[in-house]
Write a structure and sequence with these properties.
Elements: E1 2-3, H1 8-16, H2 19-24, E2 43-54, E3 57-69, E4 72-81, E5 90-97, E6 102-109, E7 114-120, E8 123-129, E9 137-141, H3 156-169, E10 171-173, E11 176-178, E12 184-190, E13 195-211, E14 214-224, E15 229-235, E16 241-247, E17 252-256
Antiparallel strand pairs: 1-11, 2-3, 2-17, 3-4, 4-5, 5-6, 6-7, 7-8, 8-9, 10-11, 12-13, 13-14, 14-15, 15-16, 16-17
Length: 257
């Protein structure tokens, strides 16, 4: 289906058809006379928070920050349960190259326990620590470093996957964005569950969605797997930011604050 974007962001995304175009398109062009002795400026791609609701009640908040510097994108996220006295909750830090190759993923929780995922010998390895005194356990995965990380509870990871889908599966035709009608499939890794699984993403189209009493035109994508069916809505007029997620089977809705 064709969707006219009419924005420089979409034009950059379509022209390069790579993840780097999405993560760098929001930045101003660099000077032609850039000082080679200085590091590239940090470019903020997205920043904010998602409210997580179950049956209409807010149960948690995810605060996230996506930035890029010198061709490396860093996606940081923190999850805090509503009413919890634990100010730290869960934290995640994902680092990928401009073409989506994993450099490192780290997760930890205040109550104890942490894990890391990193490339080793062309595949991925996960190191899990359950307590400060225990010896870390290691688990290899026969997955390439281009495998998306989709860890539990972090919806910003789904935003990054949506950007990847739009840049890799969609293309420009006569100034419009065209995506295949059949779903695109990605292998993914869920570090907290220590499993890999295939997921599929497809474009449904533009839809009117009511967000906090206001009607908006958003881009609807479906993210599905063997045991789940999610709907994602992105704002194609604002850098394809993730605005809303619904998970009907769990009576869950996620909305950008």
């Amino acid at each position: 289906m064709n969707l006219h974007t009419g924005t420089r962001w979409a034009q950059a995304l379509i022209a390069t058809c790579m993840l780097t175009s999405i993560l760098s398109a929001v930045a101003r062009p660099a000077s032609d006379k850039k000082d080679k002795t200085k590091p590239d400026a940090t470019q903020v791609v997205d920043s904010g928070s998602f409210g997580i609701f179950i049956r209409g009640q807010r149960v948690a908040t995810e605060t996230f920050h996506v930035q890029q510097q010198s061709g490396v994108s860093e996606i940081k996220s923190q999850l805090k349960e509503t009413g919890s006295s634990d100010s730290a909750g869960q934290k995640s830090d994902l680092e990928i190259t401009s073409n989506g190759e994993l450099l490192r993923y780290d997760w930890s929780q205040a109550s104890g326990g942490s894990l890391s995922v990193y490339p080793e010998n062309e595949f991925l390895k996960e190191k899990i620590t359950t307590s400060a005194t225990s010896k870390p356990a290691e688990q290899p995965f026969l997955l390439p470093s281009s495998t998306p990380i989709l860890d539990n509870n972090f919806f910003v990871h789904r935003e990054v996957l949506a950007w990847r889908y739009l840049s890799s599966a969609c293309r420009s035709e006569s100034g419009s964005l065209k995506c295949p009608q059949e779903p695109a499939e990605f292998g993914s890794l869920v570090p907290q569950d220590r499993i890999s699984m295939p997921v599929r993403m497809e474009l449904v189209g533009k839809e009117k969605v009511t967000i906090r009493g206001a009607e908006r035109q958003l881009l609807h994508l479906k993210l599905t797997g063997e045991n789940f069916d999610w709907s994602l809505w992105l704002d194609d007029q604002d850098h394809y930011k993730l605005i809303r997620v619904t998970i009907p089977a769990d009576s869950t809705e996620v909305v950008r604050d």
